[in-house]
Design a protein that fits this description.
The chain has 418 residues and is of the alpha+beta class. It has helices at residues 8-14, 39-47, 52-74, 78-110, 117-146, 164-183, 213-217, 273-278, 302-323, 328-339, 368-373, 375-417; strands at 152-159, 187-196, 200-209, 222-228, 237-247, 261-266, 282-287, 292-296, 347-350, 355-358, 363-366. Strand 4 and strand 5 form a beta hairpin.
Length: 418
Protein backbone atom coordinates (compact mmCIF):
# COMPACT_ATOMS: atom_id res chain seq x y z
CA UNK A 1 0.00 0.00 0.00
CA UNK A 2 2.30 2.68 -1.27
CA UNK A 3 0.26 5.56 -2.57
CA UNK A 4 1.58 8.10 -5.00
CA UNK A 5 1.79 11.13 -2.74
CA UNK A 6 2.65 14.61 -3.88
CA UNK A 7 6.00 15.77 -2.55
CA UNK A 8 6.33 18.88 -4.72
CA UNK A 9 7.08 20.96 -1.61
CA UNK A 10 10.03 18.74 -0.79
CA UNK A 11 11.28 18.68 -4.37
CA UNK A 12 11.00 22.47 -4.65
CA UNK A 13 12.76 23.48 -1.45
CA UNK A 14 15.07 20.61 -0.52
CA UNK A 15 16.58 20.11 -3.97
CA UNK A 16 16.70 23.77 -5.03
CA UNK A 17 20.29 25.10 -4.97
CA UNK A 18 19.09 28.61 -4.11
CA UNK A 19 16.52 27.68 -1.46
CA UNK A 20 17.93 24.93 0.78
CA UNK A 21 15.37 24.30 3.50
CA UNK A 22 15.14 21.61 6.13
CA UNK A 23 12.25 19.36 5.20
CA UNK A 24 10.72 18.02 8.43
CA UNK A 25 7.09 17.02 8.33
CA UNK A 26 7.10 15.55 11.82
CA UNK A 27 7.15 18.90 13.64
CA UNK A 28 3.51 19.72 14.08
CA UNK A 29 2.43 23.25 13.13
CA UNK A 30 6.08 24.18 12.58
CA UNK A 31 6.90 26.19 9.43
CA UNK A 32 9.95 25.44 7.37
CA UNK A 33 12.92 27.28 8.83
CA UNK A 34 14.71 29.70 6.62
CA UNK A 35 18.45 29.69 6.90
CA UNK A 36 21.10 31.95 5.50
CA UNK A 37 22.49 31.04 2.09
CA UNK A 38 25.48 29.16 3.49
CA UNK A 39 24.32 27.67 6.81
CA UNK A 40 21.82 25.12 5.43
CA UNK A 41 24.36 23.84 2.90
CA UNK A 42 26.96 23.33 5.59
CA UNK A 43 24.60 21.75 8.12
CA UNK A 44 22.45 19.54 5.93
CA UNK A 45 25.17 18.33 3.57
CA UNK A 46 27.36 17.45 6.52
CA UNK A 47 24.78 15.70 8.71
CA UNK A 48 21.87 14.54 6.53
CA UNK A 49 22.66 11.01 5.32
CA UNK A 50 19.41 10.25 3.49
CA UNK A 51 19.46 10.05 -0.29
CA UNK A 52 16.64 11.77 -2.22
CA UNK A 53 15.23 8.33 -3.07
CA UNK A 54 15.24 7.25 0.57
CA UNK A 55 13.58 10.46 1.71
CA UNK A 56 10.89 10.29 -0.95
CA UNK A 57 10.11 6.69 0.00
CA UNK A 58 10.02 7.58 3.70
CA UNK A 59 7.74 10.56 3.11
CA UNK A 60 5.38 8.31 1.13
CA UNK A 61 5.30 5.76 3.94
CA UNK A 62 4.85 8.53 6.51
CA UNK A 63 1.83 9.96 4.67
CA UNK A 64 0.20 6.53 4.31
CA UNK A 65 0.99 5.67 7.93
CA UNK A 66 -0.71 8.85 9.19
CA UNK A 67 -3.77 8.09 7.06
CA UNK A 68 -3.89 4.50 8.32
CA UNK A 69 -3.65 5.71 11.93
CA UNK A 70 -6.55 8.08 11.31
CA UNK A 71 -8.64 5.31 9.79
CA UNK A 72 -7.92 3.07 12.77
CA UNK A 73 -9.24 5.73 15.14
CA UNK A 74 -12.49 5.96 13.20
CA UNK A 75 -13.17 2.30 12.49
CA UNK A 76 -11.54 -1.12 12.62
CA UNK A 77 -9.66 -1.92 9.41
CA UNK A 78 -7.54 -5.03 8.93
CA UNK A 79 -5.66 -3.40 6.06
CA UNK A 80 -4.74 -0.41 8.25
CA UNK A 81 -3.71 -2.68 11.10
CA UNK A 82 -1.44 -4.71 8.82
CA UNK A 83 0.10 -1.57 7.34
CA UNK A 84 0.76 -0.02 10.76
CA UNK A 85 2.19 -3.28 12.08
CA UNK A 86 4.54 -3.60 9.12
CA UNK A 87 5.78 -0.01 8.92
CA UNK A 88 5.69 1.06 12.58
CA UNK A 89 9.44 0.44 13.21
CA UNK A 90 10.38 2.37 10.04
CA UNK A 91 8.03 5.23 10.92
CA UNK A 92 9.51 5.49 14.42
CA UNK A 93 13.11 5.40 13.16
CA UNK A 94 12.43 8.12 10.58
CA UNK A 95 10.69 10.30 13.14
CA UNK A 96 13.66 10.00 15.49
CA UNK A 97 16.04 10.80 12.65
CA UNK A 98 14.15 13.96 11.62
CA UNK A 99 13.87 15.18 15.21
CA UNK A 100 17.58 14.66 15.78
CA UNK A 101 18.50 16.44 12.55
CA UNK A 102 16.35 19.41 13.52
CA UNK A 103 17.96 19.53 16.97
CA UNK A 104 21.41 19.66 15.35
CA UNK A 105 20.30 22.59 13.20
CA UNK A 106 18.97 24.38 16.30
CA UNK A 107 22.29 23.84 18.09
CA UNK A 108 24.09 25.40 15.15
CA UNK A 109 21.83 28.39 15.58
CA UNK A 110 22.82 28.58 19.26
CA UNK A 111 26.52 28.46 18.38
CA UNK A 112 26.18 32.00 17.08
CA UNK A 113 25.85 33.11 20.70
CA UNK A 114 29.32 33.07 22.35
CA UNK A 115 28.06 31.98 25.78
CA UNK A 116 26.24 28.96 24.27
CA UNK A 117 28.84 27.86 21.73
CA UNK A 118 30.67 25.31 23.90
CA UNK A 119 27.49 23.66 25.18
CA UNK A 120 25.95 23.54 21.72
CA UNK A 121 29.09 22.05 20.21
CA UNK A 122 29.08 19.24 22.81
CA UNK A 123 25.41 18.54 22.13
CA UNK A 124 26.07 18.32 18.39
CA UNK A 125 28.78 15.69 18.92
CA UNK A 126 26.36 13.59 20.98
CA UNK A 127 23.45 14.04 18.59
CA UNK A 128 25.59 13.17 15.58
CA UNK A 129 26.08 9.68 17.07
CA UNK A 130 22.34 9.42 17.67
CA UNK A 131 21.69 10.48 14.09
CA UNK A 132 23.98 7.75 12.76
CA UNK A 133 22.21 5.13 14.87
CA UNK A 134 18.83 6.33 13.59
CA UNK A 135 20.07 6.18 10.02
CA UNK A 136 21.34 2.61 10.55
CA UNK A 137 17.90 1.69 11.88
CA UNK A 138 16.25 3.30 8.84
CA UNK A 139 18.43 1.33 6.40
CA UNK A 140 17.68 -1.90 8.23
CA UNK A 141 13.95 -1.24 8.38
CA UNK A 142 13.76 -0.20 4.71
CA UNK A 143 15.32 -3.52 3.78
CA UNK A 144 12.78 -5.31 5.98
CA UNK A 145 9.89 -3.61 4.16
CA UNK A 146 11.28 -4.12 0.63
CA UNK A 147 12.72 -7.63 0.85
CA UNK A 148 10.35 -10.58 0.47
CA UNK A 149 9.73 -12.22 3.81
CA UNK A 150 9.69 -15.92 4.56
CA UNK A 151 10.86 -18.10 7.41
CA UNK A 152 10.87 -21.41 5.52
CA UNK A 153 12.74 -22.04 2.29
CA UNK A 154 14.17 -24.76 0.09
CA UNK A 155 17.78 -24.31 -0.95
CA UNK A 156 19.20 -26.46 -3.73
CA UNK A 157 22.88 -26.61 -4.71
CA UNK A 158 23.96 -28.61 -7.74
CA UNK A 159 27.14 -29.04 -9.74
CA UNK A 160 27.31 -27.57 -13.26
CA UNK A 161 30.35 -27.02 -15.50
CA UNK A 162 33.71 -28.33 -14.37
CA UNK A 163 33.38 -32.03 -13.58
CA UNK A 164 35.00 -33.17 -10.32
CA UNK A 165 36.05 -29.66 -9.31
CA UNK A 166 32.45 -28.52 -9.75
CA UNK A 167 31.25 -31.21 -7.33
CA UNK A 168 33.90 -30.15 -4.81
CA UNK A 169 32.85 -26.52 -5.12
CA UNK A 170 29.20 -27.53 -4.72
CA UNK A 171 30.07 -29.22 -1.44
CA UNK A 172 32.01 -26.15 -0.30
CA UNK A 173 28.97 -23.98 -0.92
CA UNK A 174 26.65 -26.39 0.86
CA UNK A 175 28.93 -26.55 3.90
CA UNK A 176 29.17 -22.77 3.98
CA UNK A 177 25.40 -22.34 3.88
CA UNK A 178 24.98 -24.92 6.63
CA UNK A 179 27.53 -23.07 8.77
CA UNK A 180 25.68 -19.78 8.25
CA UNK A 181 22.27 -21.29 8.99
CA UNK A 182 23.35 -23.10 12.16
CA UNK A 183 25.25 -20.04 13.44
CA UNK A 184 21.95 -18.11 13.36
CA UNK A 185 20.03 -20.90 15.03
CA UNK A 186 18.13 -21.94 11.91
CA UNK A 187 16.81 -25.46 11.45
CA UNK A 188 18.76 -27.24 8.71
CA UNK A 189 17.28 -30.43 7.23
CA UNK A 190 18.87 -32.31 4.33
CA UNK A 191 16.10 -33.65 2.09
CA UNK A 192 18.21 -35.06 -0.74
CA UNK A 193 21.94 -35.42 -1.27
CA UNK A 194 23.80 -36.98 -4.17
CA UNK A 195 27.33 -37.54 -2.86
CA UNK A 196 30.26 -37.96 -5.24
CA UNK A 197 32.68 -39.81 -3.04
CA UNK A 198 34.15 -38.16 0.03
CA UNK A 199 35.06 -34.85 -1.59
CA UNK A 200 32.14 -33.75 -3.76
CA UNK A 201 28.37 -33.45 -4.15
CA UNK A 202 26.38 -33.69 -7.35
CA UNK A 203 23.17 -32.25 -5.97
CA UNK A 204 21.66 -31.44 -2.58
CA UNK A 205 18.29 -30.05 -1.46
CA UNK A 206 17.84 -28.76 2.08
CA UNK A 207 15.00 -27.24 4.04
CA UNK A 208 15.90 -24.15 6.10
CA UNK A 209 13.62 -22.70 8.77
CA UNK A 210 14.38 -19.56 10.76
CA UNK A 211 13.46 -15.88 11.09
CA UNK A 212 13.67 -14.22 7.65
CA UNK A 213 15.54 -17.13 6.08
CA UNK A 214 14.41 -16.02 2.62
CA UNK A 215 15.84 -12.54 3.07
CA UNK A 216 19.19 -14.01 4.12
CA UNK A 217 19.60 -16.44 1.22
CA UNK A 218 17.63 -14.89 -1.66
CA UNK A 219 20.69 -13.17 -3.16
CA UNK A 220 22.47 -16.54 -3.40
CA UNK A 221 20.24 -17.81 -6.21
CA UNK A 222 22.07 -18.11 -9.53
CA UNK A 223 25.32 -19.38 -11.04
CA UNK A 224 28.41 -19.28 -8.80
CA UNK A 225 31.80 -19.46 -10.52
CA UNK A 226 35.06 -20.50 -8.88
CA UNK A 227 38.57 -20.01 -10.28
CA UNK A 228 41.20 -22.05 -8.45
CA UNK A 229 43.70 -24.90 -8.75
CA UNK A 230 41.94 -28.26 -8.19
CA UNK A 231 43.41 -30.87 -5.89
CA UNK A 232 44.18 -33.15 -8.86
CA UNK A 233 45.87 -30.54 -11.10
CA UNK A 234 48.41 -27.72 -11.10
CA UNK A 235 46.55 -25.33 -13.39
CA UNK A 236 43.75 -22.91 -12.58
CA UNK A 237 40.33 -24.30 -13.51
CA UNK A 238 37.04 -22.45 -13.86
CA UNK A 239 34.02 -24.35 -12.53
CA UNK A 240 30.44 -23.47 -11.68
CA UNK A 241 27.63 -24.51 -9.38
CA UNK A 242 23.97 -23.48 -9.43
CA UNK A 243 22.08 -22.34 -6.33
CA UNK A 244 18.27 -22.24 -6.29
CA UNK A 245 16.23 -20.64 -3.49
CA UNK A 246 12.46 -21.02 -3.27
CA UNK A 247 10.01 -20.08 -0.56
CA UNK A 248 8.52 -23.04 1.24
CA UNK A 249 4.77 -22.58 1.78
CA UNK A 250 3.63 -23.29 5.32
CA UNK A 251 0.34 -24.33 3.82
CA UNK A 252 -0.34 -25.47 0.30
CA UNK A 253 -1.67 -22.21 -1.15
CA UNK A 254 -1.69 -23.38 -4.76
CA UNK A 255 -4.47 -25.72 -5.82
CA UNK A 256 -3.29 -29.22 -6.68
CA UNK A 257 -5.85 -31.70 -7.94
CA UNK A 258 -5.32 -35.20 -6.57
CA UNK A 259 -6.40 -36.57 -9.95
CA UNK A 260 -3.31 -34.92 -11.49
CA UNK A 261 -0.94 -36.74 -9.16
CA UNK A 262 0.70 -40.12 -9.57
CA UNK A 263 1.70 -41.12 -6.02
CA UNK A 264 4.03 -44.05 -5.51
CA UNK A 265 5.43 -45.51 -2.30
CA UNK A 266 8.63 -47.53 -2.30
CA UNK A 267 11.33 -48.77 -0.01
CA UNK A 268 13.82 -46.15 1.01
CA UNK A 269 17.56 -46.50 0.57
CA UNK A 270 20.47 -45.30 2.64
CA UNK A 271 20.75 -45.14 6.43
CA UNK A 272 17.83 -46.05 8.64
CA UNK A 273 18.19 -49.79 9.16
CA UNK A 274 15.74 -52.52 8.34
CA UNK A 275 12.71 -50.36 9.12
CA UNK A 276 13.11 -48.13 6.07
CA UNK A 277 14.48 -50.90 3.92
CA UNK A 278 11.52 -53.26 4.52
CA UNK A 279 8.63 -50.76 4.46
CA UNK A 280 7.32 -48.65 1.61
CA UNK A 281 7.90 -45.32 3.37
CA UNK A 282 9.62 -43.37 0.59
CA UNK A 283 7.17 -41.26 -1.42
CA UNK A 284 7.42 -40.20 -5.06
CA UNK A 285 4.84 -37.85 -6.59
CA UNK A 286 4.58 -37.07 -10.30
CA UNK A 287 2.51 -34.06 -11.39
CA UNK A 288 1.11 -35.42 -14.64
CA UNK A 289 0.18 -32.12 -16.35
CA UNK A 290 3.73 -30.75 -16.04
CA UNK A 291 5.82 -33.91 -15.66
CA UNK A 292 7.41 -32.55 -12.46
CA UNK A 293 8.31 -35.20 -9.92
CA UNK A 294 9.46 -34.94 -6.31
CA UNK A 295 10.60 -37.53 -3.79
CA UNK A 296 11.12 -37.63 -0.04
CA UNK A 297 12.35 -40.25 2.41
CA UNK A 298 13.35 -38.18 5.45
CA UNK A 299 10.64 -39.68 7.67
CA UNK A 300 9.88 -43.25 8.63
CA UNK A 301 6.20 -42.57 8.05
CA UNK A 302 4.88 -42.63 4.50
CA UNK A 303 2.27 -39.95 5.22
CA UNK A 304 4.90 -37.51 6.49
CA UNK A 305 6.96 -38.07 3.35
CA UNK A 306 3.87 -37.50 1.22
CA UNK A 307 3.12 -34.19 2.98
CA UNK A 308 6.70 -33.03 2.43
CA UNK A 309 6.45 -33.97 -1.25
CA UNK A 310 3.25 -31.95 -1.60
CA UNK A 311 4.94 -28.90 -0.07
CA UNK A 312 7.91 -29.23 -2.41
CA UNK A 313 5.62 -29.68 -5.40
CA UNK A 314 3.56 -26.64 -4.37
CA UNK A 315 6.72 -24.52 -4.12
CA UNK A 316 7.87 -25.61 -7.59
CA UNK A 317 4.45 -24.99 -9.17
CA UNK A 318 4.20 -21.60 -7.46
CA UNK A 319 7.63 -20.67 -8.78
CA UNK A 320 6.62 -21.76 -12.29
CA UNK A 321 3.52 -19.62 -12.05
CA UNK A 322 5.59 -16.58 -11.06
CA UNK A 323 8.15 -17.27 -13.78
CA UNK A 324 5.43 -17.21 -16.43
CA UNK A 325 4.77 -13.54 -15.62
CA UNK A 326 8.38 -12.56 -16.22
CA UNK A 327 9.53 -11.01 -19.46
CA UNK A 328 11.14 -13.11 -22.17
CA UNK A 329 14.50 -11.52 -21.38
CA UNK A 330 14.35 -12.56 -17.75
CA UNK A 331 13.23 -16.02 -18.80
CA UNK A 332 16.30 -16.33 -21.05
CA UNK A 333 18.61 -15.31 -18.22
CA UNK A 334 16.98 -17.77 -15.88
CA UNK A 335 17.31 -20.53 -18.47
CA UNK A 336 21.02 -19.82 -18.78
CA UNK A 337 21.41 -19.89 -15.02
CA UNK A 338 19.70 -23.26 -14.88
CA UNK A 339 22.36 -24.67 -17.22
CA UNK A 340 25.18 -23.22 -15.13
CA UNK A 341 27.03 -21.54 -18.02
CA UNK A 342 30.35 -20.02 -16.96
CA UNK A 343 29.50 -16.74 -18.67
CA UNK A 344 26.19 -16.32 -16.85
CA UNK A 345 27.57 -16.02 -13.35
CA UNK A 346 26.23 -13.90 -10.52
CA UNK A 347 29.35 -14.29 -8.39
CA UNK A 348 32.98 -15.23 -8.89
CA UNK A 349 35.34 -16.69 -6.27
CA UNK A 350 38.90 -16.01 -7.44
CA UNK A 351 41.38 -17.80 -5.19
CA UNK A 352 44.46 -16.27 -6.81
CA UNK A 353 43.42 -12.72 -5.92
CA UNK A 354 41.49 -13.78 -2.83
CA UNK A 355 38.47 -11.73 -3.94
CA UNK A 356 34.75 -12.55 -4.17
CA UNK A 357 32.92 -10.46 -6.78
CA UNK A 358 29.16 -10.07 -7.04
CA UNK A 359 28.61 -9.14 -10.68
CA UNK A 360 24.98 -8.07 -10.32
CA UNK A 361 25.66 -5.25 -7.87
CA UNK A 362 29.39 -4.58 -8.54
CA UNK A 363 30.42 -5.51 -5.00
CA UNK A 364 33.78 -7.03 -4.04
CA UNK A 365 35.07 -8.38 -0.73
CA UNK A 366 38.48 -9.86 0.05
CA UNK A 367 39.45 -12.79 2.27
CA UNK A 368 38.11 -15.71 0.29
CA UNK A 369 39.24 -18.36 2.80
CA UNK A 370 37.50 -16.58 5.68
CA UNK A 371 34.40 -16.23 3.55
CA UNK A 372 33.78 -19.98 3.48
CA UNK A 373 34.59 -20.46 7.17
CA UNK A 374 33.42 -17.30 8.94
CA UNK A 375 29.69 -16.36 8.82
CA UNK A 376 30.65 -12.74 9.54
CA UNK A 377 32.50 -12.54 6.21
CA UNK A 378 29.41 -13.82 4.41
CA UNK A 379 27.25 -11.28 6.24
CA UNK A 380 29.57 -8.44 5.19
CA UNK A 381 29.00 -9.25 1.50
CA UNK A 382 25.29 -9.78 2.16
CA UNK A 383 24.96 -6.36 3.79
CA UNK A 384 26.75 -4.59 0.94
CA UNK A 385 24.73 -6.41 -1.73
CA UNK A 386 21.50 -5.63 0.12
CA UNK A 387 22.47 -1.96 0.37
CA UNK A 388 23.05 -1.63 -3.39
CA UNK A 389 19.88 -3.57 -4.15
CA UNK A 390 17.95 -1.30 -1.79
CA UNK A 391 19.16 1.83 -3.58
CA UNK A 392 18.16 0.37 -6.95
CA UNK A 393 14.74 -0.57 -5.63
CA UNK A 394 14.18 2.86 -4.07
CA UNK A 395 15.20 4.50 -7.37
CA UNK A 396 12.51 2.48 -9.15
CA UNK A 397 9.92 3.45 -6.55
CA UNK A 398 10.96 7.12 -6.73
CA UNK A 399 10.60 7.06 -10.51
CA UNK A 400 7.10 5.59 -10.21
CA UNK A 401 6.09 8.25 -7.68
CA UNK A 402 7.51 11.03 -9.87
CA UNK A 403 5.64 9.74 -12.92
CA UNK A 404 2.44 9.55 -10.87
CA UNK A 405 2.97 13.14 -9.69
CA UNK A 406 3.47 14.32 -13.27
CA UNK A 407 0.30 12.56 -14.43
CA UNK A 408 -1.66 13.99 -11.50
CA UNK A 409 -0.35 17.49 -12.23
CA UNK A 410 -1.25 17.16 -15.92
CA UNK A 411 -4.78 15.97 -15.07
CA UNK A 412 -5.29 18.85 -12.64
CA UNK A 413 -4.14 21.39 -15.22
CA UNK A 414 -6.52 19.93 -17.81
CA UNK A 415 -9.48 20.12 -15.40
CA UNK A 416 -8.69 23.77 -14.56
CA UNK A 417 -8.56 24.72 -18.24
CA UNK A 418 -11.87 23.02 -18.86
Amino acid sequence: MIRRCCCSLYNKYYNSPSNYYLFNSFTKHHPLRYFSQSSPDVILKKFDRLTPQQRLYLETIKKDYDEASLVRQIRHSQASERFIGKFSPLYTAYKEYCNTLESIVECHELMREPEMEEIARADIVSMEKTLQLSYNDIECEISETLLPSGDNIYLEVRMAAGGLESSVFTKDLLNMYENIATSRGFQWTVLEEDSRGDIGIGNAIVSISGPDALGLFQFEAGVHRVQRVPINDTRVHTSTAVVLVTSKPDHIDIKIDEADLDITYMRASGPGGQFVQRTNSKCRIVHKPTGIFVTNQTSRLAQDNKNECLKKLAAILLKRELDETMSSTEQTKKSQAMHGDRSDKIRTYNYKSGVITDHRYKVEVSGILDYFEDPDSFMELHRRVTSVWQLQKLSEIAEEITQSQDQSSTSSSSRRRN
